[in-house]
Design brief:
This protein is α+β, with helices and mostly antiparallel strands and 323 residues long. The protein contains eight helices and 14 strands. The relative contact order is 0.18.
């Protein structure tokens, strides 16, 4: 007997499972024999350690104005949800794998190399980077390509301030990022899910935008390993898979860099990866999303709600061709 199943991402709203029940949902999917289809989904990073109101904080509202004028008073995603539902394929492809497996990652000492089209290339320790760069706190929406979203309080370094310390040259058109490659610490890298190490990239004006940060903490504490410790990228107007984690290399270059998910599935994951409700993923619509912890679906906003701040970066571009 043939059993008809909804395509992933097209489940009716009544079937959307609350995060507290997703483990049972995962087991159910495995029983149906379709778990393999979940392995081709990149997604968001996670929230971090304890909430601004302490562990278990449940959606406190705290307006924050960032330097570009953006303000949000949206309820924060509870720490329990944000810290147990994420994608970090270096530690496994299920949503709970990173929290279960990331204890093997050693995050101190840690250093980052800054290479390529800069006047002062070199390698710097995380401690030295933190000591010489202003720290900011921001509350950003994070929207995943799987059509779910979170609101997370971040702590981090403006990427433009980090890059300025190494003096980019006029030939620096793009910024390429690379994650740690160490299968002994990152068991997911022992499987050919992606071409390791994980790689991402931005155009230089995207990297220099004041909204773009290198996050070192969330919810008032340092990032734990499963959240991308000790350093991860946050670009709030792009889909979550652009948020490369556990960064060890930043290279400024003239050519557009290769990125992991674009290499793995170029028809599904473009280089720009801006949140665009008018450009569907080939297997599901991006027009609506569900905030983690909420059963309701809401309309997806262009650029994840940051159009006023970033739309000018793409003036004159075909945002369907450059998805």
């Amino acid at each position: 007997m043939l059993i008809r199943q909804n395509r992933l991402g097209e489940s009716p709203e009544r079937e959307v499972t609350d995060p507290s029940l997703y483990r049972r949902r995962r087991e159910f999917i495995r029983d149906l024999g379709v778990a393999a289809g979940l392995l081709v989904l990149p997604g968001c990073g996670r929230a971090e350690d304890a909430g601004a109101s302490g562990p278990g904080s449940s959606g406190s509202v705290r307006p924050v104005r960032s330097p570009d004028g953006f303000t949000t008073a949206e309820a924060q995603t509870p720490f329990e949800d944000a810290s147990s539902y994420n994608n970090f394929y270096e530690f496994g492809s299920d949503k709970d794998d990173p929290a279960e497996n990331a204890g093997s990652l050693v995050t101190r000492p840690w250093s980052i190399s800054i290479e390529g089209e800069v006047a002062r290339p070199g390698t710097i320790s995380l401690e030295a980077l933190l000591a010489g760069t202003p720290v900011v706190e921001r509350i950003y929406r994070l929207r995943c390509v799987e059509a779910w979203s979170m609101v997370i309080p971040w702590r981090g370094l403006p990427l433009r301030d980090v890059l300025a310390r190494f003096e980019p040259t006029s030939r620096a058109k793009y910024v390429a990022f690379r994650t740690l490659l160490d299968p002994a610490q990152m068991p997911g890298q022992r499987r050919p899910v992606l071409d390791w190490p994980y790689r991402e990239g931005l155009r230089i004006d995207e990297a220099m935008h004041p909204l773009t940060i290198l996050a070192t903490g969330m919810y008032g504490r340092d990032l734990p390993a499963q959240n991308g410790a000790p350093l991860r990228l946050v670009v709030p107007w792009k889909y979550g898979f652009k948020s490369i984690k556990s960064i060890v290399s930043i290279r400024l270059q003239e050519a557009q860099p290769e990125t992991s998910w674009n290499q793995a599935a170029p028809s599904e994951y473009g280089f720009y990866s801006n949140v665009n409700p008018d450009v569907d993923h080939p297997r599901w619509s991006q027009k609506r999303e569900r905030r983690i912890g909420d059963f309701r679906r809401t309309r997806t906003l262009p650029f994840n709600g940051y159009a006023e701040q970033v739309a000018q970066l793409y003036s004159g571009m075909d945002l369907r061709a450059n998805f």
